Amino acid sequence: MAGRIIGVDIGTSLTKAVVFDDAGVSIADACTPSTVHHLPGGRVEQDLDQVIGTVVTVVREVAARLDEPVAALALTGQGDGLWLRDAGGAAVRPALSWLDGRANSVVAKWQASGVSQEVFRHTGSGIFPGCHAALLSYLDEHEPESLDRAVVAGYCVDAVLQRLTGEITVDVSDASLPFLDPVTRTYSAAAIEACGLGHRRGLLAEPAPAGAVFRLNAAGAALLGLPEGLPVTAGPFDLPASAIGAGVREPGDGILTAGTTLACQVLTRDVSWDRDGEPAGMFLATPSPEDYLRAMPAMVGTAGIDWVCGLLGIRVEQIGELLTQSPPGANGVRALPFLSASGERAPFVDAGARAQFAGLSLETTRADLVRALCESVAYAARHCFASAGLSGRLYACGGGVRSAEWTRIFADVLGTGIVIPGDPGVGARGAVFTAGAALGEPFDAEVWARGAHTVAVRPDNAETYERGYRDYLAALDGARPLWRI
C-alpha cells in the first residue's frame, strides 16, 4: 500500500489517532479529550461539533508526523446512544450518550409489558436505556420536534463519517442493536413496531455493505488537511473493532474490554438463541458476513473504580498496590458493582440495578473495599462470559488491564489465561485491519498478533473464587427484587 492508514478511535471521553506499520506496531499516535456533559435526571450528552473537533485535532497531528503519504482513514468509536442529524450532517440537538439514563422508565415499562421480550425474540438483543429504541421512544414522547427535524437517527461513527464524506449510512455493527435481525442482517419491522416506532422508521439509515469504502468530500478534506477523494472506512464500532484488533479469530474465542464499562464478547457463527430467555446482550455483526460477536457489554468497569478512588481519597495509580494489601476474598468484604445511574444491561437488563457492599466491619480497610469492588467486576465478567459462551482463548484490553494485579484477578476468577496484545490501541488496530481488507490489501493477522503476552491463572486462588462467584450470584438474586427506579 502506498502510504499509511490513520486509524481513529472516537471514544466517549477520548479520541485517539494511530498509525501502524506493516507488523501492526504503532509508529505515531495522538489523543485529545472529548467533553461529556452529565446533566440532572441521568442525562448524558455530547456535542457533535466538539467531537468532530477532536477528530480534526488528532488526525492533523498524526498526519504531520508521517514521512509518507496518508493512504486512507479508518474510523471506529463508541456505539449505541442517539446522534440525530439533518441532511447536511449538522446535529439537530446534542447527542444522547449510550450512558444516558433518561429512558430508564421506558425500559422498565417495556420489561413489564413484554415489549423487551418481543424485541429479543426477533433480534436476539436486549433493550437498555442508552440504546436507540429506548432513546427514540423517549424523545418521541417528550421531544418529538427533534425527531421531526432530523433526517437520520444514527451513531457516533456514522455522524463523523457524514461530516467528512457527506454520506448517510451506518455500519452493520452499529445497526445490530436493537433492531437488526442477525439472520438476515436487515432491520426487523416487527421489532420496530413492537417499540411503537414504525412512524420513525425513515430515520434509520440502511447498513452499508461489507467492505464499503467512502471518500473525503471537499469539506472533509478541508477540515482534516488531507486530499479530497481520500478513502475512508467507517466501522465496525469500538467493541467489534477491539475484538479484531486484539486477535480474536476463531469461534469460541473471546475478548474482555475493561474500560469505562465492561464489554465481554465471544466470536460465533451460530445466530440461534433461546428466544424466551433473558432479554439481554446482543449479536454484533462483523465485517465477515458469517461471523458475529455475542456481546454482553455490562455497565460496570473502571468508572466504578474511579468512583471508589474519589470516595476514599486515593489515586488510581495506587490500585495495584492496594490490591496486594488485601488477600483474595477481600477479608470477607463482598460487593455488587452496579454503580451506573442507568442500571445494568448485561447479562441481564435492569435500569434499577444498584451497587452494594457487604461484610464490612471496623477492621475493614480501604484495600479491602477496593479489592472487593475489583473482584465483583471480575465476577460480573464471568457471569457475562457464561452467557456469551466463551470456550476458546480469551484476550483483554482497556484501561483496567493496565493494572497487572487486577488482570490476575480476572484470570483467577475466569479460570483461564488472558492474552494481552502488545499494542494497547486495539480499537484503532481493528479499524485499520478492516480498512486494509476493504481496500484490497489485507494485513497479515499472524504478524499483527506478535508481541502479545499471557497472564496465567494462579491455581491456589481457585477455591476462594469459586466460592466468591457463588456468593456473588446469590447476592445478585437476592438484590434484584429490591431494586427500584
From the structure above, extract its key features.
485 residues; Carb_kinase_FGGY; 19% strand; seven-stranded mixed β-sheet; six-stranded mixed β-sheet; 17 helices; Nucleotidyltransferase, domain 5; transferase; alpha+beta; 2 domains
List the helices and strands and how they pair.
Blueprint: E1 4-10, E2 14-20, E3 26-33, E4 37-39, E5 43-46, H1 48-65, E6 70-77, E7 83-85, E8 95-96, H2 104-113, H3 115-123, H4 132-142, H5 144-149, E9 152-154, H6 156-165, H7 172-175, E10 180-181, E11 186-187, H8 189-194, E12 214-215, H9 218-224, E13 231-234, H10 238-246, E14 254-258, E15 262-268, E16 282-285, E17 292-298, H11 302-312, H12 319-324, E18 334-336, E19 356-358, H13 366-388, E20 394-397, H14 404-414, E21 418-420, H15 426-438, H16 445-448, E22 453-455, H17 462-479
Parallel strand pairs: 1-6, 6-13, 14-20, 20-21
Antiparallel strand pairs: 1-2, 2-3, 4-5, 5-8, 7-9, 10-11, 12-13, 14-15, 15-17, 16-17, 18-19, 21-22
Helix pairs in contact: 1-6, 10-15, 11-13, 13-14, 13-17
Description of the molecule:
It comes from Amycolatopsis suaedae. Belongs to the FGGY kinase family. This is Carbohydrate kinase. One of its GO terms (molecular function) is kinase activity. Keywords: Carbohydrate metabolism, Kinase, Transferase, Xylose metabolism. Strand 16 and strand 17 form a beta hairpin. The strands form 6 sheets. A 7-stranded mixed beta sheet has the order 16-17-15-14-20-21-22, sandwiched between helices. The protein is an alpha+beta fold and 485 residues long. The N and C termini lie far apart (54 Å). It has 2 domains: 237 residues, Nucleotidyltransferase, domain 5, CATH 3.30.420.40; 150 residues, 2-Layer Sandwich (Nucleotidyltransferase, domain 5). It contains 17 helices and 22 strands. The model has no long low-confidence stretch (mean pLDDT 96).
